[in-house]
Every structure is written in C-alpha cells, then in structure tokens.
Write a structure and sequence with these properties.
Layout lengths: L1 E10 L19 H13 L11 H14 L5 E5 L11 H6 L10 E2 L7 E2 L5 E10 L12 E5 L6 E6 L13 E11 L2
Parallel strand pairs: 1-8
Antiparallel strand pairs: 2-3, 2-6, 4-5, 5-8, 6-7
C-alpha cells in the first residue's frame, strides 16, 4: 500500500525584522525563515514591508536543504490514536512509536531534484519510507508518521494518515512518500 504525505513549510513575514544575527546553518526547516529575516533586516533595512524570493531562489534553497539537512532525516510510524497539533511534542510521538515485528525507523537519504509545483512552491519527494511487518500479526493500527533526526532527539514534523488507522498484513510493505514543500510568503 502506498500513501502520500506532504509536509509544507512556509516562509512568511509579519512586516518587521526581529533577529539580530544569522541563525545559520539551520537546525530545522523554519531556521531558513530566521536566516532570511536576518538577511533582509541587515542588508535592506527594517521594517520590511514587501519583498520577493523568486522561484529560482526557492529551488536553490531547497536544493541546499536536501543536500545538508533533509537527507539526514528519519521517518517513523506512530501507532497511538493521536491527532497532531501545534502542541504535539517529540516525547509524545516517541511514546507512541510503532513497535511491530520488522519495524525500524527509515533514513530518508534520497530526495527528488527540487522543482516548482503548480502553487509556485519548491518541492522534493522521498519514497524511502517503506515498512514491512514480518510477523503473523502484521503492523497493527498505524495512524501516521513523524520525522526526526537519526537519534530521535530533534522533531521535524508529523502527519496523520487521512484514512487512519491503516493496518498492513505480514510481508506487505507500507510505503509512505513524503513531499517537502517550500514556499515564500511576504
């Protein structure tokens, strides 16, 4: 069974710069927003009322993120009946991580070359999220996936499957395709 996930991260500005130094390199995708906030306030001036980041810049930024950040992420499944929100924590997700026989977090080391989609967002997809239960009990109920670093100490996003819960029988692979989108909003 194949399901598609989509984590969208949006750059946006409220109109005023608030950072005094570059928080680069990013430890998380939203650090890109902080970097551009610093960049614009330092070299253009504050307050910033309007601006633009061309789609070519979005593609270049996402290309760099794929090379330096996204390729270090791990996909994990969760088996708890959780509806993610802005207050969902890594501790909650790890406590509800799937544990069926044959399960292990999957490294997302390969992403497609970033392109611009129909909404002018730069997108890149990884199809490496493949999980195969190996015991007669199958996977049990799976409600979605979440993204972390290799040690499970940094939390990058979570998504509940639209048809949750899903359940895979023994030796049937569940593939979760994750698309990361990056779009600029001023």
């Amino acid at each position: 069974m194949r399901v598609a996930g989509s984590l969208g991260f949006t750059w946006f500005r409220s109109g005023y710069a608030s950072h005094v130094g570059p928080p680069w390199p990013p430890e998380a995708p939203w650090a890109v927003y902080k970097y551009f906030d610093w960049l614009f306030s330092t070299f253009i001036g504050s307050p910033i009322v309007a601006g633009t980041v061309p789609t070519a810049a979005e593609v270049d930024t996402l290309t760099d993120m794929v090379a330096s950040e996204l390729n270090t992420w791990f996909m994990r499944l969760f088996s708890g009946n959780i509806t993610p929100s802005g207050t969902t924590t890594l501790a909650t997700m790890l406590a509800n991580e799937a544990s069926f026989t044959g399960y292990a977090p999957v490294a997302l080391t390969t992403w497609t070359t970033p392109t611009i989609d129909g909404t002018n967002a730069a997108i890149s997809t990884s199809t490496q999220g493949q999980f195969t239960p190996t015991s007669a009990g199958g996977s049990g109920n799976i409600y979605g996936y979440f993204l972390t670093n290799s040690g499970g100490t940094k939390f990058f996003g979570v998504e509940r499957f639209a048809g949750a819960p899903l359940s895979e029988p023994q030796n049937v692979t569940l593939e979760v395709d994750c698309t990361y989108s990056l779009i600029t909003r001023f």
